[in-house]
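Predicting holo structure, flavin-adenine dinucleotide bound.
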Amino acid sequence: MVDVLVVGSGAAGLRTAIELHSLGIDCLVIGKCKMGNAHTSQATGGINAALGTLDRKDHWLIHAADTLKEGQFLADQKTIEILCREAPRAIRDLEEYGMRFHREKDGRITQRFFGAQLYRRACFFGDETGKELLRSLIAEAKKRDIKFHDNVYITKILKKGKRAVGLFGIDLRTGKFHTFKAKAIVLAMGGFSRVYRRSSSRLFENTGDGASLAFNAGAELIDMELVQFHPTGMVWPRDAEGILVTESVRGEGGKLYNGKGRRFMLKYPRAELGPRDEVARAIYDEIRRGRGTKHKGVWLDISHRPKKYIINRLPKMFKQFKQYLNIDISKQRMEVAPTSHYTMGGVRVNFPSMQTKVKGLFAVGEIIGGTHGGNRLGGNSLLECIVFGRHAGQAVAKFVKQNGFENISDDKVEAEKAKIKSLLGKKGNPEIMREEIQEIMWKYAGILRNKKGLETALRKINKLKNKSITVSGDMKNNEQLALLLNVKNMLVPCEAIITGALKRQESRGAHYRVDFPKASQRYQGNFIFDKKGISFIKAKRLRGKILKVLREIDDPITHHLE
Ligand SMILES: Cc1cc2nc3c(=O)[nH]c(=O)nc-3n(C[C@H](O)[C@H](O)[C@H](O)COP(=O)(O)OP(=O)(O)OC[C@H]3O[C@@H](n4cnc5c(N)ncnc54)[C@H](O)[C@@H]3O)c2cc1C
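Done. Tokens:
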């Protein structure tokens, strides 16, 4: 029994736990993977804050304006203002926890360009920013003696009436069932970009468990159709397909060429540093029209930079291409194509308390929806975890001071145990089902969408929902069981993505409908998906200083492009 259960040991979960500890609240952090392996460790390029180190004119209001604009004005202005105003503080917190950043000779934090941002704003540690960030959060959490429970797969949120009162899970190594009781629960379980065949996520992470659990507990999902496809993932060899080629390669001056050697991004205002959706669609288009490379990609070239510079600024990319293809990126080009990367949609919360519709249930990090609107700026996601992790900690602390423990019904626990046990048997193969889901989503609900394809996808996903699959073996160390749990969780976000994509009869940000290629005023808002179905809320009008800033920066700036 602890005051608070935090599910997820990535940036969002750990920052929340640290805040709770600062406020004297007892918590337990649970993760289905080993601590240090949370998806945050994969983040590469940086974390945004308008520090103005290299570009003095930068200001949090310009950061907010860039963010709202990139999100196609679907995000809530107040939320974005909190995110951007508090970004410098988030960086200071991370420095305090011992995070290392790339620095100028005089000690100031270096900042680099990311796509669709007016100024150099991303603070980084080589191209291993996430790993370093996670290392420092773990060190801080350990210093504070925060409790962890690794390798526990949470399968259900236990409720009493309308309130979340505990969790049910299985230890993936021992096969032991666990029932956890708490006054409040924080979900920091990551996104669901792995529902797509080609993804920059690891196979076992970002499978939508959080969205699925929260939905089943009665929470609302928002913006589920808004999935970000990163322009540059590896295309070859097969086992590296989808692995991210960080935006920092373009931020550091990398250029894109099609299979015929043409720099096709020059026809766009910001060339290679345009919004992610624009660059991803442009690449996809080159490939679709037969102007791609042998492995259906395009070329990304950074070889004009000295080797020393590349090794210093992009060490992970340098190693990645050496390891998989024995390519020296300071001499040779990289073959790349779009890959599913980030989910703007997720659990709907009230900002900044991060409270879901279910009493006692909070959510933070990539699991939530609504922060980024139609598209996310690179570097804003790690930021979201740190800024709103602090807020979540504060709101949860307040909640647990006002609410006690509740009893968990034995019947509900027994029912969940029986459900998990019923997954053992000899029917079907979860591996095949996963591939089927990922293929459906990639083919019909991917970068380019249309009514017919989406309807096909919905039909196929609904059919899979009714398919009964079991796995052989017992509960202990059963990888197939863990995979089956993932696969089952994937189906909820899949249905929500497709339903939202069908309803959003326009093209906006990362969502592109070939049959409705323009944005429409009618859809200037957010789709909410819950057990009752799907509904729409209009976005609020922008107010205050931000309007002035948006007008001032409204011309496409290309001064930083070489
Ligand atoms: C390759 C890559 C590069 C990126 N680069 C950047 C970047 O440069 N800058 C930036 O801002 N963003 C970047 N992002 C996005 C960013 O890394 C993520 O959005 C962010 O790290 C999410 O953190 P999180 O704490 O919300 O979730 P995660 O780090 O994904 O952690 C989720 C946690 O939940 C646990 N969990 C999930 N399901 C269960 C379950 N059923 N039971 C128990 N535990 C569970 C997991 O084990 C894990 O501990 C990148 C993303 C990718 C894929």
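The chain has 16 helices and 18 strands.
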